[in-house]
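Before drawing any conclusions, I needed to go through one protein's amino acid sequence and its backbone structure tokens, quoted below without any editing.
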Amino acid sequence: MAVNPYMYWWNDDVPMIKKIKAYTAKKYPNVTARDNSYMQGFMTGLIFVECLKKADKAGQLNGEGLVKALQSIKDFDSGGLSAPYTIKNNKFPVARVWKVNVEKKIYEPASDWITLE
């Protein structure tokens, strides 16, 4: 069992995983898998870009504006890489429980997304 807020490389039905796989195949054809840390970093990048857009739109493309932008994110769509992203008290309180499939050597969802209040 595992608790994780991100989808895995083998979740082929996820739109953002499809994009990541297509990019990887084009730029890094010898790479056949990405680990969970990669998914976390990718999600962080998506959130950072969203913050930059929000801060720029508000005319506050600076540290204070980025903090405000991050704290204002609600139901951000990551293309299925994670649950809709909402900041609560400077945290992203969501994950799901995964169980190992020994035969396939992968984790599979054992729950839906769980949000802590």
The radius of gyration is 16 Å. Residues 36-57 form the longest helix (22 residues). Strands lie at 2-4, 94-101, 106-109, 114-115. The chain has a mean pLDDT of 95.
